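Morning run. Coffee first, then this:
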Amino acid sequence: MLIANIIGIIADDLTGANDTALQFHAKGCNTEILIDYKEVKKLRSNIGAIAVSTESRNIDSQTAAAKTYEACVALRENFGVEHFYKKIDSTLRGNVALEIIAALEATGKDAAIVAPAFIQEGRITIGGYQLVKGVPIERTEAARDPHVPIYESSIPNILKRQLDEAQKEQVGLVEHAIVTKGAGPLTLKINELVAAGKKLIVCDAVSVTDIEQIVMAMRKCSYDVLPCGSAGLAQALSDGWVDVYEQKQNINKKFPPLPKLVLSGSATQLSTLQIKKLQFDDDFENTYILSLHLNDVLDGLNPAIVQRAANNLAKNNIVVVHVGELETEIEDEHSQSRERLIDEGISRDDLAHRITDYLSTLLGELKKVKEFILVTIGGETSYKCAKALGVQHLQVIDAVLPSIPLCMDDNAQLIITKSGNLGTSTTLVEIMKYFSDHG
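And here it is:
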């Protein structure tokens, strides 16, 4: 394997950093995620790609931009990164525009190619509009995100809303009619837009072939452009950034028969459905589901909850602690829990932070008494759980599913991280079957 230069991935949450890092690992590149890049003085040997999360999706835009700029500079100066990839959410949540502008300033790139389509997950861009399985993102659960709700589906408009008047003119669009003509015409269009002063160039993509043509055009482009997209664009880019001269050996991994602890801070319908599918799957009978209520979270961690979870973390058991039912309580006008939120002045944003704090505290207590394989669902949940374990590095060691990595931390703790809105209804079942097949 030949790695021309170290690859640096900058994401705004940990699950995004991890699923993008997996795409380079899959091509034979030793890949590592740095939980706190400021504390890491040097990389381990033979690392070809590193990923960091700025944890900036749910904060104010100026701070998010500053964190992105700082991360890019640190990756270049401390670790010698030359290939930069700006991971953005495929449903455009977060401070996307200002973070890209900050990354351009820090890296000195001429412009950014914004291609958030993730074909394998049913997320496409057509006419500048982002669709999830045929549904405009403003009509999906992304619209109800407690931190950063989405109000429209036009990517250029989403970007412009985050920019000042002068910067709005820097947003351009390459429509599908150009993309389908191939890399040549696409390259000419990108060159034309950059020459006209466009800095954020959105590209339509409805197929893997479209993504591949966009990557080819970026390589042929007369300008130095920054790729910005989901794990889908990273997958196509990895072929050019990592040259594999020998077939990577398929090592049959074996894992100890440890219990599985699933911590889900995501209240999306998909996450709830995934948990229910696991609960009623005939192949996994020893599954204990602990559904948290609103008062559980608001009152803080109860030792009885810790004991219940710990008692069930035995042998090959699966323990799932989740907040999927909280949405029902919040929407119930007659719920005393809902009244408590109002009385105590707790916003949806505050509640989301309390949930992730609760789950990470629970993890810390369980880790004192039990050994297990950890599965975290949700970006902020994953990050706070990593911090609760005192993790500095996560090494990608395998692909559980095409966009779900299995990682190992500094103390050989096995960790799987998954975005709350990623996968199908059977994704959690498939994760558990992975360990059954590698036991």
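The longest helix spans residues 348-367. Good start to the day.
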